[in-house]
Amino acid sequence: MKNLILVTLLLFLISYAYIKIAERFNIVDKPNQRSSHTKNTIRGGGILFLVALLIFFILEGFQYPYFVIGTFLIALISFIDDLKTLSSKIRLPFQFIAIFSIFYQAGIGSFPYYAIPFLLVLGVAFINIYNFMDGINGITGLYSIVVLFGFYLINLELNVVDANLILCTFLSLLVFGFYNFRKKARFFAGDIGSITIAMILFFIGVSLVIATKSPLIVFSVVVYGADALHTLLYRIIIKENLTEAHRLHLYQKLVHVKKWSHLKVSGVYAMLQLSVSISIYYSYDASMWIQYGMMLFFVFFFSLLYYMVFKRIEHTSI
């Protein structure tokens, strides 16, 4: 794609237009006891990720139609959810359809039929985790850039997916970051943003796993996974209602209890993932014994890290 500068300018233009539309129709998040912001902030700015995907789709010969249609569908549902909260009974069927579109596009025949239900549940869990982790300024953008960078390095060697998909997504993250990587963000990603970027990353990740047969690539999102899964386990232990909103994620506690800035927490999460992504790049074609060994190490390391940081935070809050 030779028009990356024009794509960037178009994304800036659309972001400016969206801000004006959101202000006109009051598409804002209002602070509450569960949120991590202190003033009304425009939500849905992550619509840029969908726009970038559609630009790629149109300019690059309508590649990956099932994936794009599935992503557009769930993005639309997510945007409606941004405007008016939808029941999970409405959202979940569309999420399963969207995830199925990814596996169908990437080659669902690569998996045994009995694994498909599990993979669909895993995919839906992933996009929801990505949504839950979108709670402070900078975290979705910075973390996604790092994950995308790791995928780009591997794809550069193998050419599994069109590099322009990665480049367009990267540009949309940079433009989004211009408004979101701030102490006082101009807008948030919203459900449309976090779900859309999760869909894009999941599609690229699944495609790379199928091509390389490397289970290690799954750990390209291990930092998010560690926070989300340990938080879920903690909420189960304290018998909290899992359907209720909360501020128990480790990144939220670092902000609200330790008083770290949003961008500091986002930067730490991104740097941790960057170190993992680089190690994955140098090891994704290693023997399975090495890959499984690294996976066990990551599980142990991030579990221990979570426990140590969590205990320190709990001590601070006493």
Task: Provide structural commentary.
The protein is mainly α and 318 residues long. The chain has one domain. It contains twelve helices and two strands; from the N terminus they run αββααααααααααα. The chain has a two-stranded antiparallel sheet. The protein is globular, with a radius of gyration of 19 Å. The model has no long low-confidence stretch (mean pLDDT 93).
- The number of distinct β-strands equals 2
Strand order, largest beta sheet: 1-2
**Parts with pLDDT < 50 across at least 5 consecutive residues:** none
Distance between the termini: 55 Å
What is the string of helix and strand elements? HEEHHHHHHHHHHH
SS class:
mainly alpha
The best one-word shape is globular
The value of Rg in angstroms is 19 Å
**How many domains, in number, for the residues?**
1
**Estimated share of beta-strand residues:** under 5%
Biggest β-sheet: count, sense, barrel? 2 strands, antiparallel
Number of helices: 12
What's the helical proportion of residues?
over 70%
Mean pLDDT: 93
Give the secondary structure arrangement, pairings included.
Blueprint: H1 4-25, E1 28-29, E2 41-42, H2 47-59, H3 65-83, H4 88-106, H5 116-132, H6 139-158, H7 163-180, H8 190-212, H9 222-237, H10 250-256, H11 262-281, H12 288-317
Antiparallel strand pairs: 1-2
Helix pairs in contact: 1-2, 1-7, 2-3, 2-7, 2-8, 3-4, 3-8, 4-5, 4-8, 5-8, 6-7, 6-8, 6-11, 9-12
